[in-house]
Design a protein that fits this description.
Order of helices and strands: HHEHHHEHHEHHEHEHEH
Structural class: alpha/beta
Radius of gyration: 21 Å
Strand order of the largest sheet: 3-2-1-4-5-6
Length: 328
């Protein structure tokens, strides 16, 4: 598998990627305006909830969607927290992969540079999931096969593994929650040899999306336990989870409140870079950690694809700020 062009500085005038050393001392990208708008959003919601004594109980209940216990954050694993594509280019990792399902949890002997990048990613991922856990209920939904997530995390990301256990983050293997009928599978197999590669890829993508959708719906239903769905954020590198979240937002209808109004269901999805380098993944996690408070307090749906240049990232940041401002 060939490394994506953006990972090697080939273009004559590449867009400049935000590097880790451009962040503040605490390792976060402090994006101007976000904290103030989150505070303003909280204040406005509080004011709306106090419009009249008669509405106090109902409005206070409606405002609970911002509370951490009412938020759900669903994250992917491969190329979202774990640098699968980047590692797959390395012979040491490919050898480790042959034995990944065994009890082998020792990291291969990488170069010092690779070890340094993995250590930085481990710290960034730990910081991200810790921050996310303070804002909502975090769950990992992956298309990989059990026990891939646990084994790769234990072998390559010990700091993340520690935080994972501390926060009690659950892992859902989407393939275990989705059962395709034998009739559909037989039809696909019978016609697969006649299909163009593009058609076969579409079928694979659609199936991946359905697996993610089924697993995500189960996670959300479990989180809200029969109550109305309130505030969900999905973060992943692929189209599967991004499109799955869109499907869920189209299909799910919350019950009506006491006054007959439809209860709000706020859906947010961030699609990260596909097949990122380790350094890109570090930067993305730092950016997402800076964005998460604003995303969780946005009283609206929000779907965004993360770009790979400083200009793209700042444009997305401004879009988020505009949406927060527009909701006030």
């Amino acid at each position: 598998m060939e490394l994506p062009a953006r990972c090697v500085s080939m273009p004559e005038e590449p867009k400049r990627m935000i590097e880790s050393d451009e962040f503040e001392e605490d390792g976060l990208l402090h994006l101007e305006g976000a904290e103030q708008l989150v505070s303003k959003q909280r204040s406005n919601i509080s004011n709306r909830s106090l419009r009249s004594v008669g509405e106090l109980s109902q409005q206070t209940s409606s405002a609970q969607w911002q509370e951490p216990e009412q938020g759900v954050i669903i994250v992917d694993w491969d190329d979202t927290l774990f640098p699968t594509s980047w590692l797959s280019e390395k012979q040491e990792f490919r050898y480790w992969q042959k034995r990944w399902s065994s009890s082998e949890k020792k990291m291969p002997e990488f170069s010092q540079e690779d070890l340094q990048q993995l250590a930085e990613l481990d710290q960034a991922a730990r910081s991200f999931v810790t921050a996310a856990s303070a804002l909502g209920q975090v769950c990992c939904v992956t298309l990989s096969r059990r026990p891939w997530q646990q084994n790769t995390m234990s072998a390559f990301m010990p700091k993340l593994a520690s935080a994972w256990e501390e926060e009690g983050i659950q892992v859902v293997y989407a393939s275990e929650t989705f059962v395709i009928s034998q009739g559909v599978m037989a039809t696909e197999c019978r016609h697969s040899s006649q299909m163009a590669a593009e058609e076969q890829e579409t079928i694979i993508m659609n199936r991946a999306m359905k697996k993610k959708e089924t697993a995500m719906k189960r996670v959300i239903k479990h989180a809200y336990e029969g109550k109305s769905w309130k505030n969900v954020v999905s973060i992943g590198d692929g189209e599967a989870e991004f499109n799955a979240m869109r499907e869920i937002s189209f299909k799910h209808v919350n019950p009506k409140g006491h006054r007959g109004d439809q209860k709000s269901f706020r859906m947010k999805a961030v699609q990260m870079l596909d097949s990122p380098c380790c350094s890109e993944l570090i930067t993305q996690l730092q950016i997402l950690q800076a964005w998460l408070p604003a995303l969780m307090h946005l009283d609206d749906d929000f779907f965004v694809t993360l770009g790979d240049s400083e200009e793209d990232i700042m444009a997305m940041h401004q879009k988020l700020l505009d949406r927060l401002e527009g909701g006030n």
